[in-house]
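Subject: Interface between my chains keeps coming out wrong

I've been trying for a while to get a sensible model of this assembly. When I model each chain on its own everything looks fine, but I need the whole thing in one frame so I can look at the contacts. Pasting all components below, labels as-is. Any help appreciated, I'm running out of ideas.
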Amino acid sequence: MKSQKRIENIWLALEIGNSRLHWALFKGETLDLTWDTEHVPKSVIQQIAQCHTLDDWPTTVFPFSQQKEIVLETSTHPPIFIASVVPSQTKLWQIYPNVEIITLDQVPLLGMYPTLGIDRALALWGAGKIWGLPMLVIDAGTTLTFTGADINQCLVGGAILPGLGLQFSTLGQKTGQLPIVETKVITSLPPRFALNTPEAIQSGVIYTLIAGIKDFIEAWWSLFPKGKIAVKGGDHTLLINYFQALYPEIAASLIVEPNLIFWGMREIVMENSKYK
Ligand SMILES: Nc1ncnc2c1ncn2[C@@H]1O[C@H](COP(=O)(O)OP(=O)(O)O)[C@@H](O)[C@H]1O
Ligand SMILES: CC(C)(COP(=O)(O)O)[C@@H](O)C(=O)NCCC(=O)O
Ligand SMILES: [K+]
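Reply #2:
Try treating it as a single job with all components included. I did that and got this:
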C-alpha cells in the first residue's frame, strides 16, 4: 500500500551531461534514489509538464513510477533543480512549471572563471563539503575533467580532455578502417603491445589515459601533499579497476563517489529552507 501522505519536501536534481541525464530524488536533505536516462526530446518534456505527480511520468524518464513500494505522493509538479552543461537541453526543460537552473554564481567557490562548467563547480563544492579541501575531482564522463580547489575554497584550476568513450568513437568515426570500440565490451586490461586492431586501440587509449591521470594526480600531490582526490563519472568503475591493477597504492587513496554533483546541489538547495 502506498502511503496517502503527500511529501512536500520532495525535489529532483537533474544533472544534464553531454551523454545523458543524471537524476536524483531527494526528500529534504536525504538522497532517496538516483538513476540515469537518455537526453529527453521536447515532446516528452511537454508530456511531463502536464503530469501532476511523479507517478504519472513516463517510465523512460522516471523508471520507478510503476513501483508500488516507492512512496511517490509528491506535491504537484515537484521542483526540478537543473545543473546543465548542454544549453539546448536546458532550454527544453524550461517548459516544466517548477524548474530552477543552478548557475555558477550560486556556488561559493572563489576564483571561478565565467565559462567554468557548472557540473565541475558543483562536484568540487560537494566533494569539498563532505571530505574537506584541498580537493581534486576527476570526472570520467563524456569528457575527462580534473577540477581542484585549495583550502581557501579557491579554484586552483583543472584540465579537460576527451573521455574514454569519446576517444574510442572519434577513432572509429574519423578514420577509414578503425572499428568503434565499445567501452562496455572491455573487461580487463588489454595487452600493452597488441596484435589485433581492437586491442591496439584499447591499449593506446587506456594506457595513455591511465598514465595521464597518474601524472595529474602526482602533480596535485606535489602541490598539495595531503590533497584529496574524488572520482566520479560514467567510466569511473573502469578507471578505478585499472588503477587497482596497475597502481594499487594510488587506487587506495581515491575517494569514489558517483553522486558528487548531487551533494553539491544539495548544499545549494538546502540554503532555500522550503525544501528542508
Ligand atoms: N548506460 C550507459 N550509457 C551511456 N554511457 C555509459 C553507460 N554506462 C557507462 N557509460 C560510460 O559513461 C561515459 C559517459 O559518462 P557520463 O558520466 O554518463 O557522461 P555525462 O555526465 O558527460 O553525460 C561514456 O563514455 C560511457 O563509456
Ligand atoms: C568540460 C565539460 C564539457 C564536461 O562535461 P561532461 O563531460 O561532464 O558532459 C563541461 O563541464 C563544460 O562544458 N565546461 C565548460 C568549460 C570549462 O569548464 O572550462
Ligand atoms: K559530468
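Reply #3:
Confirming on my end. The pocket of adenosine-5'-diphosphate (ligand 1) is lined by residues 17-20, 141-142, 163-165, 183, 233-235 (CB under 6 Å).
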